[in-house]
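dumping this here so i dont lose it
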């Protein structure tokens, strides 16, 4: 079919390489949406082919199959804008390098994000297990148990938020809840009560919430089992909850 088509009309006098070279010359001399689109259409199958190669070669942690195609097409657009036809390197080789780099960078970021998400989920599971195992059941209703657990979770979140922020996390100029006198008084009172906890409980809560140290690492630091650290964590939060409940 291809041979028949190329034997008729303009196909008899058009050379693909020369036509492509002319397109590059036109785009270089006067870039336009039309020339950019024409180059994109020409190299799109090549970009998808490279994406398929990368999909087979690297782990897909954090990336969906369709992401490879999307990343390859993004790299194609960037490559068209940045390629210098006066250089000796052919565009196809330049494009391959750009697509591979773009996909690898995205995969690394996605893998890091996935690892961070898994780490946070593990931290949350450890905390909830600690609070659930340490719940005092003595004649309390389900609502009372939930309220006590919610209060302890809230205390943990406040302590966590008091940790030294990263530059990206610095507050905006507009006022927030953290700027109110009542909130500052609450945080100061919580700090005072935390400092009065038994040493191990205070150490565990400080390390876990303010320095993001997991229970397993705290256990190694203190020479305790992870289960014991979990128990002391729950006891410390329960003390804080009861003491903060008396604050007016």
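and the seq i came up w/
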């Amino acid at each position: 079919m291809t041979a028949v088509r190329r034997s008729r009309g303009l196909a008899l006098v058009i050379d693909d390489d020369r036509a492509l070279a002319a397109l590059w010359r036109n785009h270089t001399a006067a870039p336009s949406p039309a020339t950019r689109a024409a180059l994109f259409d020409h190299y799109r199958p090549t970009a998808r082919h490279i994406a398929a190669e990368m999909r087979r070669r690297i782990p897909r942690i954090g990336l969906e199959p369709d992401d490879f195609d999307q990343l390859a097409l993004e790299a194609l657009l960037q490559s068209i804008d940045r390629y210098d036809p006066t250089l000796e390197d052919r565009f196809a080789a330049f494009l391959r390098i750009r697509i591979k780099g773009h996909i690898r960078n995205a995969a690394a970021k996605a893998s890091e994000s996935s690892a961070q998400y898994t780490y946070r989920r593990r931290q949350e599971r450890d905390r909830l297990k600690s609070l659930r195992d340490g719940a005092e059941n003595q004649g309390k209703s389900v609502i009372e148990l939930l309220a006590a657990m919610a209060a302890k979770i809230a205390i943990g979140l406040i302590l966590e938020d008091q940790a030294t922020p990263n530059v990206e996390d610095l507050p905006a100029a507009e006022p927030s809840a953290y700027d109110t006198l009542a909130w500052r008084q609450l945080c100061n009172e919580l700090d005072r009560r935390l400092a009065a906890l038994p040493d191990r409980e205070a150490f565990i809560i400080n390390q876990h919430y303010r320095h993001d140290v997991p229970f397993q690492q705290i256990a190694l630091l203190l020479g305790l089992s992870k289960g014991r650290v979990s128990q002391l964590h729950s006891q410390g939060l329960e003390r804080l909850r009861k003491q903060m409940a008396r604050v007016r």
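Residues 91-133 form the longest helix (43 residues).
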